TrEMBL record:
<dbReference type="InterPro" id="IPR043917">
    <property type="entry name" value="DUF5753"/>
</dbReference>
<protein>
    <recommendedName>
        <fullName>DUF5753 domain-containing protein</fullName>
    </recommendedName>
</protein>
<feature type="domain" description="DUF5753">
    <location>
        <begin position="93"/>
        <end position="273"/>
    </location>
</feature>
<dbReference type="Pfam" id="PF19054">
    <property type="entry name" value="DUF5753"/>
</dbReference>
<dbReference type="Pfam" id="PF13560">
    <property type="entry name" value="HTH_31"/>
</dbReference>
Length: 278
């Protein structure tokens, strides 16, 4: 859906309709081009290159994951056996966004996972490697956490972690204890561009939950990439939603839940209570 939205944006910027593109020979038919833009048909590399060439888009944004984009000294395309294409696209999105708002009810968001916690999740079927898997043994951090620390979004990263996550002993008590201590340090730090809050169980009564493992991604204004809602899944990278009403609804829900989560001290109190229970 991301590529389709981008291609439709390029066409609209040039004030072309579907028929114009077909008549110019850049697409086989109006129906085919429409299906490409709405992601209802597979997008082959040859079709993509032909359309990009026709629109004069020689340098697509990083967020679309075209080509080989380095992370530090690592070329992810050299590790396709451990780094699937959907994970590459997701990492490129992380590098291109101006703001991330993440809400999780199943596990600690990947951006905040300790190496041991991430490894425990990987044993449960997650397939995204750590930086150690990609040859960066000097910094064995989960890749998204590494990117957040090195390249935090310009307008900030905000993570809302449901309190139920704190009680799931993923990896065992010792691993969870280390993860909760790390979350405490994140909440205490509370840097302007990286903020973390715990959503308490007591607040659920009046909470408009945006759904499990959903992230709102915002991109630079004036570009071809709209704001996205990413609903994550373990094995296929999840779903990207671009409908403005859906994205706006999730953002509004997240804002309301963030306010209901309370202060930094309230989040620390919840974390300390769960640490004492371990």
């Amino acid at each position: 859906m991301v590529w389709g939205t981008y291609l439709r944006g390029l066409r609209n910027q040039q004030h072309l309709n579907l028929a114009d593109v077909v008549q110019a020979g850049a697409a086989r038919s109006i129906a085919t081009l429409s299906r490409v833009e709405t992601a209802t048909t597979p997008l082959t590399e040859s079709v993509l290159v032909e359309l990009l060439t026709f629109y004069g888009a020689n340098d697509p944004p990083l967020s679309l994951g075209l080509g080989r984009v380095p992370v530090g000294r690592v070329w992810r395309s050299a590790f396709t056996d451990v780094y699937p294409r959907w994970a590459e696209r997701r990492t490129c999105l992380d590098r291109a966004v101006t703001e991330i708002r993440s809400y999780s009810t199943l596990s600690v968001p990947e951006w905040l996972q300790t190496p041991a916690y991430a490894s425990a999740l990987a044993c449960r079927g997650h397939t995204v490697p750590t930086t150690a898997d990609l040859g960066r043994t000097e910094r064995p951090l989960p890749l998204r956490r590494y990117l957040l620390e090195r390249h935090p979004p310009r307008d900030g990263f905000a993570a809302l972690v449901d309190e139920t996550v704190l009680a799931r002993p993923i990896g065992g008590r010792a691993v969870l204890h280390q993860q909760l201590e790390d979350l405490c340090s994140r909440v205490e730090d509370d840097r302007p561009r990286i903020r973390v809050r715990i959503f308490p169980l007591a607040a659920w009564e009046n909470a408009p939950a945006p759904g499990p493992a959903a992230s709102h991604l915002t991109f630079p204004p004036g570009g071809s990439m709209p704001a996205l809602l990413h609903q994550e899944a373990q094995h296929n990278g999840g779903t990207y939603l671009t409908a403005p009403c859906t994205v706006a609804s999730h953002r509004a829900s997240f804002t309301g839940m963030w306010e209901q989560a309370g202060s930094r001290q309230q989040s620390l109190d919840i974390l300390h209570r769960h640490l004492r229970a371990l």
